[in-house]
């Protein structure tokens, strides 16, 4: 019987297109009792493959192809796991190859390492790239013999000589030489066939995949290339192929019989905390923590009439109860580990979130500083986190300031040992757009054509759309596929590759801590962007190995808050967010005005609508809002608001429910309320109540029926009433429990929401500065924040090389100076160097001084961006002259300085005089440099003379038209386009437009979107005919028509520096057709001479077409 061994899965990145389920299904159909997998250099697939094989009752044989660096050679060989010790040793070897061995030795192992980690492994000699085939092909028989003997000395009788017959042109002499050597040394032969794709029909797509990996083109002849023989072959095919030496086939079965190791999932292993007795340590630290919390946080909030001793007793009883659950389950060490690194972070002034998830339900966690939410104060149920009646691993997800999260992980690595701590690996896949771009490149399909196709595929990161789905949903794409053979070839080649892994990366949050060196239990991988290695098994499969995952999440909002606190401190204002009042009138006034841009969790359009209706007056209402604004609970929002404003009478089916639901106006809002209702109404313990909640969430019919009977009987026994009423109420709870959100998660997030709102309400310029700096490279966010700051009456001062820092900064209570690094294409590092130079040696008095001092810092793109944004206006106000002299400026910056160190004037600085930009052109260049208009807006002056045009902030005028069911016109510059797909498969889009007053969003439905797509490029001016809907003082705009908006006297300046470009320009202008935009041509005749003139005709030039002209020049 033949056992297929040398299979490579898609975890051999960009080398194999075989997916593990495909491979196992094929083996099952062929009734193979076992199956081998031998990916190259890495073992990403090992656990997934083993578990999948076990499910199908196929025995998994685990191997790995490694590269042996020996003398001057690099040879492939395969190692296979025979025993548990062999598994450990192969983990060690792979870790050596990918982590320990660096530089030229990366992904290679040495003979010494093979010897050190040989026990429990079987070696097979490799095929065409193995040492035998390589040396014998070079007629180095003696050297082949000696190398074989070296490996025999290491592996004894655990060595096989592989025979592979994949290349039809390969010499039979090599096979014969291998066979003779095997007989001479009494080493068994093994027939293998390295498989990189499943069937012959997959060869073409796989060949494209290899070209993607190698950066080659498919049409190239002189490149590494496989043949269709490198497919997964059936036993019949292999028996036919090796009919002359059947023992090589028979030995595959004998090979399988020697394997005595099965990689299986194992029980959870909690790492130990370094202390003599974990339970005692937990008791001491939690009791000390409780005393601190009582004195500093709990007692100060109490009124004088409340007995502190009674409060203390309540907390002590809760603490004792929680420990009585934690300790028998063996989780004391887990709590201590999490507490330790959080306390270290806080001690080192690294912002930590108040909590996340159900962990906030634990008083022990609160006392150990793991969370900053008092579960007693907020009625949080511990059993929602840890259930004494269902043992499961507690899970603390911890938010850290995203800029300093890595410091905490470094601390953990130092404390427990770098070989005991690792990140978790994750994989990037070839999704629809990415695979089309990759395949288009190797098929040499023009970039523009591929880009056009890709843009027809909706971008949905949360639910990526497949190529097959895109063809069904997008008529334009389907038409191109039907009519253009090259498009059809592109898509059909890409389809089999879609979803394959493209690269490995590090999981954003997960970290593993182990009691023993990790490389004994799992292979490790070194991501070049991290100092700490990652496990080669991804999240799901590393947990199957019994490891405990610790989540170190980076939350940008914590960085925003901390940066604002730091700015206030620099101004002499000390503020501790943990001590701010949760009853601040200014904060609630801001939320009632729905000024929620930048407010954590509350800034979406939908949430803003709910805030406007709710008009919150308490922190409890913000908590409820965070919990309710989610799919499912959203349906209860209208009733919650109606009851809150007493427009609907609050009623309770049973009197006992009033105390449970009173804080949420009789509406079930939180998961914890389900637990409390089951406890007080039906007599469940809280542990039983959590099991009930889980059963309701899973909706298993048999379990639900059993629970219904228990619930109804207990309600009738405890509270009387009708059976039907109790049964109906059970249904209400069951429906709610299916989507309910935990209050333990809502409270800490509501707290962060409140803190951001507090800062914005009380320190607006400081808060907006922090927002802008945390998204300094996100143009769309910056545009939003700048618009909001202006609305708040904060002046945004323009960039200036003598006034701006790299980051945005508050100049006074009403002014924020825009940051240099916020410009596009400049980079933070270069702008920090500019700032440092100015701080060190003073302002830049002249252009030449600026150029010489920053000659090693700025490149052409960076200098262009500074000019277009007006950052050099103070030292040279003529932006057009600077732009047309830019090559000379760069050349001058590298010339040696003579005379004084930084001359203010020099005769060598001769700039090419150029026509000044018009106001419109100045703003357009500013938009290109910043991504939006900052100092002014192109429409501002035109709108003054257009009384019929409705502006974005004129809600009253819009409302007038809406009440009359009339459409109206608006003007705007396209800023952003977000395309979506409806449930019916039709495309629509949200278009963000800006005018002189602000920005607004309009919806374009499918037909109009297709018709107007060419108008939707950033910077395009449009005349919009819209209808509106008024919803709670918010206007929803729907586009009825969209046409290009022409500006009087608009001039496009076109610079031509080479004579051959004149004809190209003529052809380009003919292609765009006549329109209203005039074209000024500036032609460089000599280095210092320009010829300028305006063409008589106007042309239909959109921003997209202007960009196309730039691309055309760059291609040449």
UniProtKB/TrEMBL annotation:
Give UniProt keywords alphabetically.
Answer: DNA replication, DNA-directed DNA polymerase, Nucleotidyltransferase, Transferase
Q: What is its EC number?
A: 2.7.7.7
Question: According to the UniProt entry, where is the signal peptide?
Answer: none
Entry-linked Pfam families: DNA_pol3_alpha (PF07733), DNA_pol3_finger (PF17657), HHH_6 (PF14579), PHP (PF02811), tRNA_anti-codon (PF01336)
Q: Where is this protein chiefly located?
A: cytoplasm
Its catalytic activity?
A: DNA(n) + a 2'-deoxyribonucleoside 5'-triphosphate = DNA(n+1) + diphosphate
Gene3D superfamilies in the cross-refs = 1.10.150.870, Bacterial DNA polymerase III alpha subunit, thumb domain (1.10.10.1600), Metal-dependent hydrolases (3.20.20.140)
Which intervals hold domain Polymerase/histidinol phosphatase N-terminal?
Answer: 3-70
What GO terms fall under cellular component here? cytoplasm
Single Gene Ontology BP annotation: DNA replication
Broad class of enzyme this protein falls into: transferase
* GO MF entry, a single one: nucleic acid binding
Quote the subcellular location field of this record.
Cytoplasm
Name the NCBIfam families for this protein: polc (TIGR00594), PRK05673.1 (NF004226)
The record's annotation in PANTHER family points to: DNA POLYMERASE III SUBUNIT ALPHA
What protein name is recorded for this chain? DNA polymerase III subunit alpha
């Amino acid at each position: 019987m033949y056992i297929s061994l040398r299979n490579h899965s898609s975890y051999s990145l960009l080398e194999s297109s075989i997916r593990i389920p495909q491979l196992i299904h094929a083996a099952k159909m062929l009734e193979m009792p076992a199956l081998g997998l031998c990916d190259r250099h890495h073992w990403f697939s090992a656990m997934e493959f083993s578990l999948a094989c076990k499910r199908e009752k196929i025995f998994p044989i685990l191997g790995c192809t490694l590269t042996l660096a020996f003398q001057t050679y690099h040879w492939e060989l395969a190692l296979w796991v025979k025993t548990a010790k062999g598994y450990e040793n192969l983990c060690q070897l792979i870790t050596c190859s990918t982590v320990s061995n660096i530089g030229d030795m990366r992904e290679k192992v040495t003979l010494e390492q093979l010897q050190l980690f040989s026990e429990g492994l079987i070696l097979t000699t490799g095929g065409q790239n193995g040492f035998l085939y390589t040396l014998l092909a070079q007629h180095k028989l003696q050297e082949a013999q000696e190398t074989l003997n070296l490996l025999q000395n290491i592996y004894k009788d655990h060595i096989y000589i592989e025979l592979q017959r994949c290349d039809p042109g390969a010499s039979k002499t090599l096979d014969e030489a291998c066979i003779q050597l095997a007989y001479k040394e009494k080493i068994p032969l093994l027939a293998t066939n390295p498989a990189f794709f499943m069937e012959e029909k997959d060869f073409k797509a796989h060949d494209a995949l290899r070209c993607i990996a190698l950066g080659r083109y498919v049409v190239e002849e002189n490149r590494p290339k496989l043949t269709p023989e490198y497919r997964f072959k059936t036993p019949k095919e292999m028996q036919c192929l090796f009919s002359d030496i059947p023992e090589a086939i028979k030995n595959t079965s004998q090979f399988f019989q020697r394997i005595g190791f099965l990689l299986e999932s194992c029980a959870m292993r909690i790492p130990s905390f370094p202390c003599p007795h974990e339970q005692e340590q937990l008791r001491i630290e939690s009791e000390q923590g409780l005393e601190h919390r009582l004195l500093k946080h709990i007692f100060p909030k109490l009124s004088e009439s409340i007995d502190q001793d009674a409060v203390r007793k309540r907390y002590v009883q809760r603490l004792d109860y929680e420990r009585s659950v934690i300790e028998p389950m063996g989780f004391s060490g887990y709590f201590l580990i999490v507490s330790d690194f959080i306390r270290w972070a806080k001690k080192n002034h690294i912002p930590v979130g108040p909590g996340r998830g159900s962990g906030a339900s634990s008083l022990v966690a609160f006392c150990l500083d793991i969370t900053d939410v008092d579960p007693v104060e907020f009625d949080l149920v511990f059993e929602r986190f840890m259930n004494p009646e269902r043992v499961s691993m507690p899970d603390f997800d911890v938010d850290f300031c995203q800029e300093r999260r890595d410091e905490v992980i470094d601390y953990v690595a130092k404390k427990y040992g770098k070989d005991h701590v690792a990140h978790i690996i994750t994989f990037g896949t070839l999704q629809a757009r990415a695979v089309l771009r990759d395949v288009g490149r190797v098929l040499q399909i023009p970039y523009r054509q591929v880009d056009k196709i890709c843009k027809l595929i909706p971008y949905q990161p949360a639910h990526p759309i497949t190529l097959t789905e895109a063809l069904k949903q997008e008529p334009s794409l389907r038409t191109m596929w039907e009519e253009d053979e090259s498009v059809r070839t592109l898509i059909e080649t890409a389809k089999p590759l879609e979803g394959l892994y493209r690269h490995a990366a590090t999981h954003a949050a997960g970290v593993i801590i182990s009691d023993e060196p990790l490389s004994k239990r799992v292979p490790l991988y070194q991501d070049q962007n991290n100092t700490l290695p990652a496990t080669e098994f991804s999240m799901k499969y590393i947990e199957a190995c019994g490891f405990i995952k610790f989540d170190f999440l980076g939350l940008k909002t914590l960085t925003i808050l901390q940066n604002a606190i730091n700015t206030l401190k620099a101004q002499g204002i000390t503020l501790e967010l943990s001590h701010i009042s949760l009853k601040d009138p200014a904060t609630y006034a801001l939320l009632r005005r729905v000024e929620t841009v930048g407010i954590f969790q509350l800034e979406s359009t939908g949430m803003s609508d709910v805030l406007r209706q709710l008009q919150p007056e308490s922190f409890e209402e913000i908590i409820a809002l965070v919990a309710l604004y989610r799919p499912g609970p959203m349906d209860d929002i209208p009733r919650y608001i109606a009851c809150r404003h007493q427009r609907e009478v609050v009623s309770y089916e049973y009197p006992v429910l009033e105390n449970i639901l009173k804080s949420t106006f009789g509406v079930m809002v939180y998961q914890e309320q389900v637990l409390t209702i089951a406890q007080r109404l039906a007599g469940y313990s809280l542990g039983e109540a959590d099991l009930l909640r889980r059963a309701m969430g899973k909706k298993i019919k048999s379990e639900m029926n059993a629970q219904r009977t228990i619930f109804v009987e207990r309600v009738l026994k405890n509270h009387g009433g009708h059976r039907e009423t109790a049964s109906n109420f059970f249904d209400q709870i069951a429906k709610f429990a299916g989507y309910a959100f935990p209050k333990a998660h809502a409270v800490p997030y509501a707290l962060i929401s409140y803190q951001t709102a507090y800062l914005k309400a009380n320190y607006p310029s400081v808060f907006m500065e922090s927002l802008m700096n945390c998204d300094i490279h996100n143009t769309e966010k910056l545009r939003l924040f700048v618009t909001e700051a202006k609305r708040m009456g904060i002046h945004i001062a323009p960039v200036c090389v003598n006034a701006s820092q790299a980051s945005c900064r508050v100049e006074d209570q009403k002014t924020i100076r825009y940051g240099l690094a916020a410009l596009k294409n400049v980079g933070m590092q270069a702008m920090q160097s500019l700032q440092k130079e100015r701080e060190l040696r003073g302002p830049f008095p002249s252009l030449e001084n600026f150029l010489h001092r920053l000659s090693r810092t700025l490149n052409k793109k960076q200098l262009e961006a500074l000019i277009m944004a007006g950052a050099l206006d103070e030292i040279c106000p003529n932006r057009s002259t600077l732009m047309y002299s830019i090559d000379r400026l760069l050349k001058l910056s590298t010339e040696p300085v003579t005379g004084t160190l930084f001359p203010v004037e020099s005769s060598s600085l001769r700039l090419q005089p150029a026509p000044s930009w018009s106001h419109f052109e100045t703003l357009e260049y500013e938009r290109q440099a910043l991504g939006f208009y900052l100092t002014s807006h192109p429409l501002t002056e035109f709108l003054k003379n257009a009384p019929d045009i409705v502006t974005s902030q004129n809600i009253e005028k819009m409302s007038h038209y809406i009440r009359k069911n009339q459409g109206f016109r608006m003007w705007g510059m396209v800023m952003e386009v977000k395309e979506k797909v409806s449930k019916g498969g039709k495309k629509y889009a949200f278009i963000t437009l800006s005018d002189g007053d602000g920005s607004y969003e309009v919806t374009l439905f499918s037909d109009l979107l297709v018709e107007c797509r060419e108008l939707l490029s950033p910077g395009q001016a449009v005349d919009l005919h819209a209808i509106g809907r008024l919803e709670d003082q918010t206007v929803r705009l729907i586009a009825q028509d969209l046409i290009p908006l022409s500006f009087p006297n608009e001039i496009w300046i076109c610079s031509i520096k080479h004579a051959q470009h004149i004809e190209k320009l003529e052809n380009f202008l003919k292609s765009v057709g006549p329109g209203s935009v005039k074209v000024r041509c500036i032609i460089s005749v000599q280095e210092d001479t320009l010829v300028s003139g305006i063409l008589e005709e106007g042309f239909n030039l959109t921003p997209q077409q202007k960009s196309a002209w730039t691309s055309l020049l760059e291609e040449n």
